[in-house]
Amino acid sequence: MSIVENAIYRDGRRVESPGSLEDTYRLLQSVLDDAQRASDQAAPAAAPAADDDASHPGAEGGVVAPRPAEDTVVAWISLYRPSREEIASLAEHFQLHELAVEDTVQAHQRPKMERYGHTLFTVIRPAVYQDETETVEIGEIHIFTGPNFVITIRHSESSGVSKVRKRVEADPDLLRTGPDGILYALLDQIVDDYFPVLSGLENDIDEIGDALFAGQSNVSQRIYELGREISDFHRGVAPLSEVMRRFFAGFSKYRTDEELQHRLRDVLDHVIQVTGKLESMRSSLGDAMSLDSTLTTARQNEAAMVQNEQMKKISSWAAILFAPSIVGSIYGMNFKNMPELDWALGYPMALVLMVLVGVVLYVVFKIKNWL
C-alpha cells in the first residue's frame, strides 16, 4: 500500500484517519451524510440550490456528494508512487478523467493545471537543493482537487506534503475553505521551498567566480553542469505563472474564497520572483562561460609566450655551441691543399675564431633579449 497519510476533515478538523482507500470511500460518505443531515436539520425549509455551479454531478455513487456551505467536508489522500490498481480505484470512485489518470500513471509531466468538470488536475515540480552533492533534485506531484476531496500523488522522495498537512491542520480557517485551501497550501509550500534552492545555486555561482580566477581546470565542466541544473529548474518553474493565471480565471465561477484569492496571488508573485532570479542566473552563467573562455585564451597565450622565450634561449645556445663546431668541421676535412694547415699560427687562429664567433653570437642574442 502506497498511502503515506490519509485523513477526512470536517469543519476544519480531522475527524477520520482511514487506513485504506476502501475505508476512505466509506468514511467519507458517512461524514458527508452526517453533514447533510445536520444541514437539513438546521434549515429544514431551505430549498435546494438551483445554481448549476453549486451542484456536483457524478455523486450518484455516493462518494462525491453536495457539500453543505456551512460545514466543509474534505478527504485528503496522500500517495507515494501508487500502483496502477490504486490509481484505477481512485479514478473509479472519484470519477477522475481518463486523460488525467493517464498522465498520473506515466508521470514525467510538465507543470500544468487542467479542469475536467468539477475536478481540477494540477502538476507541480517541487525542488530540493542537496548540499552534499551541490545539485538540485526536482520531483513531481500530481494533485486532484474535487468538491470534497484532494488527492496528492508524488513521484519523488521529498515533496513537503507532510509539512503542508501539519500547516493546514493547525489552521482550521484554511481547512474550512475546502480543497482550494489545501491546493493553495501545497502551491505555497512548494514555491516557498524554491527559495533555498535559489540560495544554493547562487552560492554555486559565487564559487565558480572564485574558481575562474584561481585557474582551476574543471571550471568549464562545472559551469555546464550548473547551467543544465538551472535550465531544468527553470523548466519546472516557468510554466507555473500560466498555471496560476488559469486558476485565477475560475475564481468567480467556482466561488473561491476572497482571502484565498489574495493568498494565491501572493504565490504568483513568488513564482515571478523565482523565475526572474533563474533568468538572471542563466545570464550570469553565460557571462561566466565567456569569462572562462577569455581567461583560458589568455592563459594559453601566456603559456605560448613563455614557451617562445624558452625556445629562443634554447635556439641561441644551440647556435653559440654550433658555431665553433663549424670551424672545427672545416679544418677537420682531409684535403691535401689546405694552406692554413701549414701556418704556424693556424691552430691558435682556429681556436680564436671559434671563441670569437661564439662571443659575437652571445652578444647579438643578448642584445635581442634572447638570453
From TrEMBL:
PANTHER family: CORA FAMILY METAL ION TRANSPORTER (EUROFUNG) (PTHR46494). Residues 36-65 are annotated as: Disordered. The chain crosses the membrane at residues 314-333, 345-365. Its main location: membrane. One of its GO terms (cellular component) is plasma membrane. It is a multi-pass membrane protein. It catalyses: Mg(2+)(in) = Mg(2+)(out). This is Magnesium transport protein CorA. Residues 38-49 have a biased composition (Low complexity). Belongs to the CorA metal ion transporter (MIT) (TC 1.A.35) family. It is found in: Cell membrane; Membrane. Mediates influx of magnesium ions. Alternates between open and closed states. Activated by low cytoplasmic Mg(2+) levels. Inactive when cytoplasmic Mg(2+) levels are high. Keywords: Cell membrane, Ion transport, Magnesium, Membrane, Transmembrane, Transmembrane helix, Transport. GO terms for molecular function: cobalt ion binding; cobalt ion transmembrane transporter activity; magnesium ion binding; magnesium ion transmembrane transporter activity. It holds the Pfam family CorA. The lineage of its organism: Bacteria, Bacillati, Actinomycetota, Actinomycetes, Micrococcales. It comes from the Bacteria.
